[in-house]
Amino acid sequence: MIRITVWNEFAHEQEDPDIRKLYPEGIHGAIADFLKKSGEDFKVRTATLYDEECGLTEEVLNETDVLIWWGHMRHYLVPDEVVNRVFEHIQNGMGLIALHSAHQSKIFEKLMGTISGDLKWRETGDKEILWCVDPSHPIARGVGEHIILEQEETYGEHFRIPTPDELVFISWFSGGEVFRSGCVYKRSRGKIFYFRPGHESYPTYYNKQVQQVIINAVKYVYTPAEEVPYGYGMVESVLK
Amino acid sequence: MIRITVWNEFAHEQEDPDIRKLYPEGIHGAIADFLKKSGEDFKVRTATLYDEECGLTEEVLNETDVLIWWGHMRHYLVPDEVVNRVFEHIQNGMGLIALHSAHQSKIFEKLMGTISGDLKWRETGDKEILWCVDPSHPIARGVGEHIILEQEETYGEHFRIPTPDELVFISWFSGGEVFRSGCVYKRSRGKIFYFRPGHESYPTYYNKQVQQVIINAVKYVYTPAEEVPYGYGMVESVLK
Amino acid sequence: MIRITVWNEFAHEQEDPDIRKLYPEGIHGAIADFLKKSGEDFKVRTATLYDEECGLTEEVLNETDVLIWWGHMRHYLVPDEVVNRVFEHIQNGMGLIALHSAHQSKIFEKLMGTISGDLKWRETGDKEILWCVDPSHPIARGVGEHIILEQEETYGEHFRIPTPDELVFISWFSGGEVFRSGCVYKRSRGKIFYFRPGHESYPTYYNKQVQQVIINAVKYVYTPAEEVPYGYGMVESVLK
Amino acid sequence: MIRITVWNEFAHEQEDPDIRKLYPEGIHGAIADFLKKSGEDFKVRTATLYDEECGLTEEVLNETDVLIWWGHMRHYLVPDEVVNRVFEHIQNGMGLIALHSAHQSKIFEKLMGTISGDLKWRETGDKEILWCVDPSHPIARGVGEHIILEQEETYGEHFRIPTPDELVFISWFSGGEVFRSGCVYKRSRGKIFYFRPGHESYPTYYNKQVQQVIINAVKYVYTPAEEVPYGYGMVESVLK
């Protein structure tokens, strides 16, 4: 069983009727919903900015194998203490899936070591086509060679991230941009997957292929608990 | 001084008047021309499929620091003996710049260890935009964040190459495709740069930014002669 | 179920009584034995240089998900036709585990695109310690932070391979050398794992940790059959 | 000309007579000295923890192309404000060479996105041999295939760093450990080189090969000023 916590900033849905109409249970609700119905051995809970400690207490994180993160306008409201707690758990093996504008979240920037918020963007409803550049990657399994999203926010390079450990998808936008849209990183024992699509004003998280990518990614960034602890610090020679 | 040999299949230009008109001195001639005028410390020669031993004798390769390769329809006419000779020189440090349809050349496939000929393609004069995804890479120096080519042959993913050691450019095509267009590999001491643009029917090699990329790439894939030879084979313990 | 074929040159065991004593059923027999007893859902067969077509006919390869390769002195006796057949299957998703001196086999060199036979070596019974440098990598699972082999053949850098896509183990030798001992590559749909230990004159393949690495690696290089075939060749625009 | 600032914590040399004897002008003084005498076009200055603002004011960083960092016991005394300032400059292209225990400095951990302070260590004067695993890498130029240091502090894996973009050296220690000792990273426009050797109680920075590596690294992590600024933020379509 993989224990998933879906975290959402949950601001747009409460403040904008059009977006509430699109995601009546919040983006977190929509994501939790398809994860629960996936047929996979997942246990899913949600948390938002409006929960105490962002809903990411030590207890919750101790019971989380994979954290999914959606945020956009209120990154600055996530307390550093919560960010540091999440960071520690990732170092120890918790997986992270950072969606869309989570590229600018405190936790993603802290993991990247760059100003990963930097990129080009435009909200003009461009068509997006995500092309898979690694067909046998587990995250691409069953998805097919491309995902077509009729309308999305455009993101464009240069995206200020370190070179991904694994690059799975590259996006094409009708306005002329390309973007590294599916990027895997490892930080200590924790795996991270950044996945670009999912602007709040489009029904992206209802797309079956997008859902499949996220389901696959949950399984990919899941790291089983450490069986044989590694030693750190002062040691005697292994030859003795 | 960097000694460059520009190799060209040189078939289209001799067989098709339109292409001869575009590249009257051959594609190799056009490339050699801008390299000579670059102001860099380059010594440039050319060779073609129609020269004896493809113009790539041991003597020529001994005097070549960087080999530029353009081929398309006649890959199969390059003798294996010549391919093996080029391969050995690359292993020992000769740089290779594989242009456009050279992705399917014997030498490039031999270096990749894949069926790198596999990709999507279409000759419909799509617009191509190459986006730089590594702004401070030496190959991108002075080029700017994108190169717009009004018309080019389209190449599309999936491109059956190993994950590049360094990915510098990603192309956008107006017909909906993306492509990893600027890829660096190292094989033993030799550096390789694959650069996508340059279909024979378009004036791509007259584009100043394309020229700048190739000039930069020559300098980047150049490896100075080995100063301190490395040992291989049976050895005594280094502790003795 | 993962269908495994263990291939062995099977020369030392037939020609040298000491080695026959160590591996009475051949190295392939010893490896097949622990794979069968692993408790995993494996179906295991073996093949050797002395079988017709090296035991690697189209039929056998069609029924092989993962090929394990051990060879040393007779690489040159494997026909190019067999090598090319194995190469094609790897491109299409068959996994390969290349053990020890298989670094110099025709198939491994063809996949690497380098003279991967080049390295330092010495048969003086040095102690080898393999250190894991990627603790949460699936290939290292349950192995612990190091494997100590009291006696092994020494391999030393520089090892003429491309930069691994993933580096899992680095070896230490008592004579002063280090070596990149656990290297993952992808070539088209096929995954490759090179694993250094296993000289014929030492009981390395009876070591439980070495066995665990090979069992893990079988699962890691296994690629399920392609579900959604990708298109290659001439295409129409995806926008139509 | 490359403008270098050598930063040193400068605590051991002031507090321990033995170390002062070894490095009478401080480790920064010793490093600055060989850089000045290198014959390269370098302009060298130094700064320490005991200078105001650690000697790393905006003015100094504006005039610094490459920053070399040595620190050990007093990482916590470097103010976050200084760390953030250095971080910003690296994002914009300043190179960083992190030496030895700088793996645990605030700036290096911030760039890595991991708890890079974690590793094994032992001060027993083990012999260290650094093996080059990328012979034609510019940082290895003229160094030869190994560097032997008769006595050094031992560092051992697992070293909690992200997979290096480029791995140049691997260390062997007589007590049985290995370590990834020469690691290149890129963060936005800035290049970073981590180089392991240089414990304060050994004369490591007087070793000619170690000096050559640092001289080469200065040239390698140097990024020329951006010629063609890249755009970030909201953009119009490039097609218009």
Oligomerization category of the chains in this entry: homotetramer
Provide the residue-averaged pLDDT of chain A: 97
Distance between the termini of chain A: 41 Å
Largest interface: chains, residues each: A-D, 38 and 38 residues
- Give me the count of strands of chain A: 10
Tell me roughly what share of residues is in helical segments of chain A: 10-25%
Strands in their spatial order, largest beta sheet of chain A: 2-1-3-4-9-8-7-5-6
Descriptive account of the structure:
4 copies of one chain form a homotetramer. By secondary structure, chain A is an alpha/beta fold. Chain A has 7 helices and 10 strands. In chain A, strand 3 (66-70), helix 5 (80-91) and strand 4 form a beta-alpha-beta unit. The longest helix of chain A is centred in the C-terminal third of the chain and has 14 residues, at 208-221. Chain A is globular, with a radius of gyration of 18 Å. Chain A starts with a strand and ends in a 6-residue tail after the last strand. Chain B binds chain D through residues 93, 129, 132, 134-136, 141-146, 148, 186, 189-191, 223-224, 226-228, 230-231, 238, and chain D through 93, 129, 132, 134-136, 141-146, 148, 186, 189-191, 223-224, 226-228, 230-231, 238. Strand 5 (120-132) of chain B pairs parallel with strand 10 of chain C.
Describe the structure using short key phrases.
homotetramer; alpha/beta; 7 helices; 240 residues
